[in-house]
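Risk register update: the risk of archive-format incompatibility is retired. Evidence:
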Amino acid sequence: MFTGIVEELGEITAVENLGDSCRFRVRGPVVTEGAKHGDSIAVNGVCLTVVEHDADWFTADVMAETLDRSSLGALAEGFRVNLERPMALGARLGGHIVQGHVDGTGQVLERKPSENWEIIKISLPADLTRYVVEKGSITVDGISLTVVDAGPDYFTVSLIPTTLALTTLGIKQPGDPVNLEVDVVAKYVERLLANSGQGAGQ
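Archived output:
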């Protein structure tokens, strides 16, 4: 379980093609501190398992399913990535509940800079629109964000200077893919309503 508060902007230092999967080597001295084989680390919002590690890097295997359903398949050596370790029991929940299970991908459509913040417009897959509401939570590349505007096939988020400086959203450009994870609470509510006969169309 994660919170969507990025701890470190890491870097992909190697990508090894394993046929139906690949292995990433990721530089991230903050998240590798105290890391052990089998630990989880979120990379751009995708929960990955540590295979090997040293003082400032770790490797993780990524299966074809994950490569196909997330933006990790587009990563290459030199790409920057958002990194977060799992939330410790009893720690503050600074963002919102993030599972590290990507629901789909979107694309950066537009950036509108302002004096003290920036608005980013991101495309939204049709099957996820029902989970995204104004002032609700959404995870973009592992970053817990608040939805400003929820359109029929897009949403916007407002980014403060800290988010722009310390995450990949500071460097993403129109056309770049991003991982999206909607609020898990919304999905559970939908399932409960459907099971009680009060779902969509009831």
